[in-house]
Design brief:
The complex is a heterodimer of chains A (400) and B (262).
Chain A (H helix, E strand, L loop, with lengths): L1 H38 L11 H23 L8 H14 L8 E4 L9 E4 L1 H23 L4 H21 L22 E2 L2 E2 L6 H24 L2 H11 L1 H6 L4 H27 L9 H14 L4 H28 L10 H15 L8 H9 L7 H7 L11
Chain B lengths: L7 E12 L2 E12 L3 E5 L6 H8 L7 E6 L2 E2 L5 H7 L1 E3 L12 H8 L8 H6 L2 H20 L15 H14 L4 E5 L7 H18 L2 E5 L3 H7 L2 E6 L2 E6 L1 H6 L1 H8 L1 H4 L1
Parallel strand pairs in B: 3-8, 3-9, 6-7, 7-8
Antiparallel strand pairs in B: 1-2, 1-4, 4-5, 9-10
The chains are: A mainly alpha (400), B alpha/beta (262).
């Protein structure tokens, strides 16, 4: 009886969230048509994000979802996620710009056929960037994922610094210009099909916006499916207790590396898309700050929670691209000499501190984490580790 | 050696583990006959759990060999040893607290499943069928282990006794030939202990298991095991049937002190 009721309740709940999701998607799709009306509203109108800002918000949210696979599902603290963004952006740069003008190769490109350099269709490049970044993820993952906890975080931090430094300085690798140094690679070709080039259309931002929505939905779909799969269970198990997971037959290295690779994949696709939207891959974008920024989104929204990361990503993305500046100009109008964009990382920091104190599981906590808050966690002593240090571990307390 | 092979599921020879200057297991020879229930006992700090951890790959022995079902497991990572057919429980419960009971069991089945990444995202018919089948099998297994209800509840919220049962269910989910139980009755009351003893014997018969358990409760040890090995300070001091062990002077000395043996 009780069980039947519970099943019923679950169905209602899942159906309700399905409707909610459908409504949000429709709303998101028509947003370009209503944005001008919304922006004319009194008082709140100026706070409504423009389409161009929305594209950036969607892109960073997609990256945050990718990071969430690593940090939220598998519990691996990655402080160098920006490396994947860089890899994706440069993959787009190499495959759709004048960078390698030694060759001329076109495949489904939207630019005129006699331009030198490699010009693949940017649609292909989104996939290619995903693959390239996945490989980068595996290469970075294999040596680092043997480490646990803090040590892993430190090493990923290192990689997050190495990659941007590398692209900044790889303009003369044995005389070969790989990245065009500090200038970055620009212009990168636009998305488009044949003669229909997004960037030259009057509603270019809208077209990029709808593409970004599509990419984000794809990411969410993959995240949900993976979470509920055999691999997803293995990730959570590793997050919960690595030793026990290994003792239950989960190959730690392989499973962790997959989480890294998949997280990297989404970072790479998002990075390539962003590069095409901005028209270039610029090394100044790939700073450590950005990794932390993405991590803040995950923490704000709820570690491991897809809905949460969506909300967290959109909120912080908005504040970063437009919100703080709008607040600042409002303050100026009111005669206050206060410019919040100057303090943006201070503000994000304050948000994180507040969240950790008031609501550590995020705005929309992962289902599992709710249990933690309600029931408390067993603080199981790491008994194998203890026994490794000394044999006078827990065994003595069991004395009859 | 060859003659032994069919009878013994596990043959450990001269297994030695040193932590710095401390010898945790001192050249232990140990065999587990196929289909038997064997107990490993000894005072605290005798090296029982260290020995367990060497069988399961948590520790690599300093020297010696451990051959399980014809395969040397020394140096293999834990997950590969599980795949060969050694499942275990932990002395202090180590469930995945924020996963449901059934998810815990499904994790145990991980190495017996095939669903890959692309298959999981697309949810191919094969993956869907596999997931349905294992979910049914997990429920059966939970019921078999004495958890007919509460499959959807988080492991952390289950009462202690159920958590112990869930640990056994999760270990059985790996489809082991050899089941290692590390103090399975710790914290159980006498009725639960008696029920558990019966369960171990039944599971052994139903699932063609071989069982090795570490146990402090002498009633359990004497009641359930067919052979007993006694460790003290990392050294094997006695081995035999329960009756032999009960009469062994060194064992009595180790447990009760010199005066008691005299």
């Amino acid at each position: 009886m009780n069980e039947a009721f519970q099943r019923f309740a679950t169905r209602i709940r899942s159906e309700r969230s399905l409707w909610l999701a459908a409504g949000l998607i429709v709303l998101a799709l028509v947003y370009p048509f209503i944005v001008e009306t919304l922006r004319d509203l009194p008082l709140i109108g100026d706070f409504v994000p423009q389409i161009r800002s929305m594209v950036v918000m969607l892109v960073v949210t997609m990256m945050a979802l990718g990071l969430n696979v690593v940090v939220g599902y598998a519990g691996l603290l990655d402080l160098g996620y920006v490396a994947f963004y860089a890899a994706g952006a440069y993959a787009a740069g190499w495959l759709a710009s004048l960078q390698f003008d030694q060759v001329t190769f076109h495949l489904g490109s939207t630019v005129s056929g006699d331009l030198p350099g490699i010009h693949l269709s940017v649609w292909l490049i989104l996939a290619a960037a995903g693959v390239v970044t996945t490989v980068v993820g595996i290469l970075i993952g294999l040596p680092t994922l043997r480490l646990r906890g803090d040590y892993l975080a430190i090493v990923t931090l290192g990689f997050g610094e190495i990659v941007p430094q590398f692209v900044r300085n790889a303009d003369s690798l044995g005389g070969f210009d790989l990245t065009n140094g500090t200038f970055g690679i620009a212009p990168i070709d636009s998305l488009g099909v044949g003669d229909y080039v997004f960037r030259t259309e009057s509603n270019a931002a809208d077209l990029y916006y709808w593409t970004a929505i599509g990419l984000l939905l794809f990411t969410v779909f993959c995240c949900i499916r993976l979470r509920d799969s055999r691999l997803g269970r293995a990730w959570i198990a590793i997050r919960e207790d690595e030793t026990a997971a290994a003792a239950m037959g989960i190959p730690l290295m392989r499973t962790k590396t997959w989480s890294y690779a998949i997280g990297a994949f989404f970072g790479g696709v998002a990075g390539a898309f962003y590069a095409s939207f901005k028209g270039g891959a610029f090394p100044a974008d790939f700073f450590f700050n950005f990794s932390i920024f993405l991590l803040c989104m995950v923490i704000l929204g709820g570690i491991g929670s897809i809905w949460g990361v969506l909300v967290g990503g959109m909120i912080l993305g908005y504040l970063n691209i437009e919100g703080l500046a709008t607040i600042g100009s409002k303050a100026q109008e009111a005669g206050l000499d206060f410019d919040p964009t100057k303090y943006q990382f201070g503000i994000y920091g304050a948000i994180i501190v507040t969240m950790m104190l008031m609501r550590p599981t995020g705005l929309i906590p992962e289902r599992r984490h709710k249990i933690e808050l309600a029931e408390g966690v067993h603080d199981t002593p790491l008994y194998d580790v203890q026994a490794g240090g000394s044999l006078t571990g827990r065994e003595h307390s069991d004395d009859e | 050696m060859m003659a032994d092979a069919p009878d013994n599921l596990l043959v450990a020879v001269d297994v030695r583990k040193e932590f710095g200057g401390l010898v945790a297991t001192d050249d232990i020879d140990f065999t587990i006959p196929r289909g038997s229930i064997v107990a490993l006992i000894g005072p605290n700090g005798a090296g029982k759990t260290t020995f367990f951890n060497q069988i399961t790959g948590v520790y690599v022995p300093t020297s010696g060999s451990i051959v399980f079902d014809g395969t040397n497991v020394v140096g293999k990572p834990p997950h590969a040893i599980v795949e060969l057919g050694i499942g275990r429980t932990f002395q202090n419960i180590r469930l995945f607290a924020q996963m449901t009971a059934i998810e815990n069991v499904l994790v145990g089945m991980h190495c017996r499943l095939r669903g890959g990444i692309i298959g999981s995202i697309v949810r191919t018919p094969r993956v869907r069928r596999e997931e349905r089948e294992v979910s049914d099998r997990a429920r059966e297994l939970l019921t078999y282990c004495g958890l007919p209800r509460r499959h959807e509840e988080y492991a952390a919220t289950l009462p202690y006794g159920d958590q112990r049962r869930l640990e056994v269910a999760r270990a059985l989910a790996t489809d082991p030939k050899l089941l290692l139980l590390d103090e399975p009755t710790a914290g159980m009351n006498p009725q639960e202990t008696a029920a558990f003893t019966g369960f171990v014997r039944k599971a052994r018969d139903d699932k063609d298991l071989t069982v090795l358990l570490i146990e402090h409760d002498m009633k359990v040890v004497m009641g359930v095991s067919e052979r007993i090995t006694v460790l003290e300070y990392g050294v094997k001091i006695a081995e035999g049937t329960p009756a032999e062990i009960r009469a062994d002077e060194r064992v009595i000395e180790a447990y009760l002190g010199r005066g008691a043996a005299a």
